[in-house]
């Protein structure tokens, strides 16, 4: 009789164990189903979730921080690409280092267009686009602006994408009005701060570049007359001691009136009265 009771007890325990396992598996199945249901749906269904699944892109190229190519900032590009050669403590020969104004001054003096050309096409041991062929032109320009403006320059970051298109359209629409304007109406100080500052600021270390407010630097130049100053600024000039002034300070996007306004500003801040 006791033996029969023991068999019944063992059978009941086995049934309970099997039942518990089945329940556990069922719970796990429903938890997995619930966890994954928010990401993908049956693509044949017509629910909003199914629609999102059908139109989900195959892939999207982004930086490690999720920024799409074409929208990266100058600082992001520097930290990803340029820092290898242009870090402030870089030991790469002839590579200008970030925040080292002495390294960058002669390069900034060549103008933004030359800097961009060298970065885009490669120059000496500098590979095209710093070796990052996926960089867009706008991103490359932003990286140049970031490095130069951290190192004594004062370039304006170019607009990108839709903003650039709108800017171009605005310039085209404004062109007729600009042609009608005959006077030098540009803000000379603003042009100086964006285009001339790197070489002509009061503390400039560029050899043979006259510095703002330094009357001794400007006096012999002022004596040549306004038209000569304008001609040298517009067309470029190589001084007798070797100083080189590129046409329009290297910024060929400046109008003649803007260049003249900048010349007048610098002269009148440095002992002249033009």
From TrEMBL:
UniProt cross-references to SUPFAM superfamilies, sorted A to Z: Cytochrome c
Pfam families: Cytochrome_CBB3
Ranges for region Disordered: 157-182
Residue ranges of domain Cytochrome c in the record: 69-151, 183-270
Transmembrane segments: 12-32
Alphabetical UniProt keywords: Electron transport, Heme, Iron, Membrane, Metal-binding, Transmembrane, Transmembrane helix, Transport
An MF annotation (GO) of this entry: heme binding
Domain of life: Bacteria
Protein name: Cytochrome
Taxonomic classification: Bacteria, Pseudomonadati, Pseudomonadota, Betaproteobacteria, Neisseriales
């Amino acid at each position: 009789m006791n033996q029969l009771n023991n068999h019944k007890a063992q059978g009941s325990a086995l049934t309970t164990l099997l039942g518990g396992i089945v329940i556990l598996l069922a719970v796990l199945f429903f938890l997995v189903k619930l966890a994954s249901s928010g990401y993908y749906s049956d693509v044949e269904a017509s629910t909003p979730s199914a629609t999102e699944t059908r139109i989900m892109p195959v892939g999207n190229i982004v930086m490690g921080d999720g920024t799409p190519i074409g929208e990266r900032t100058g600082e992001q590009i520097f930290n990803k690409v340029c820092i290898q050669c242009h870090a402030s403590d870089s030991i790469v020969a002839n590579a200008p280092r970030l925040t080292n104004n002495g390294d960058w001054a002669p390069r900034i003096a060549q103008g933004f267009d030359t800097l961009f050309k060298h970065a885009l096409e490669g120059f000496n041991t500098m590979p095209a686009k710093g070796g990052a062929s996926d960089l867009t032109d706008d991103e490359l320009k932003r990286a140049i602006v970031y490095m130069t403006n951290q190192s004594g320059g004062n370039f304006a970051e170019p607009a990108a994408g839709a903003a650039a298109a709108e800017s171009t359209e605005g310039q085209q629409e404004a062109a007729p009005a600009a042609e009608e304007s005959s006077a030098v109406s540009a803000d000379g100080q603003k042009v100086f701060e964006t285009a001339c500052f790197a070489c002509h600021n009061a503390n400039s270390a560029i050899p043979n570049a006259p510095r703002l407010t330094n009357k001794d630097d400007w006096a012999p130049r002022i004596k040549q007359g306004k038209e000569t100053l304008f001609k040298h600024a517009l067309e470029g000039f190589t001084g007798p001691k070797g100083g080189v002034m590129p046409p329009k300070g290297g910024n060929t996007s400046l109008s003649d009136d803007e260049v003249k306004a900048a010349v007048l500003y610098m002269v009148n801040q440095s002992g002249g009265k033009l």
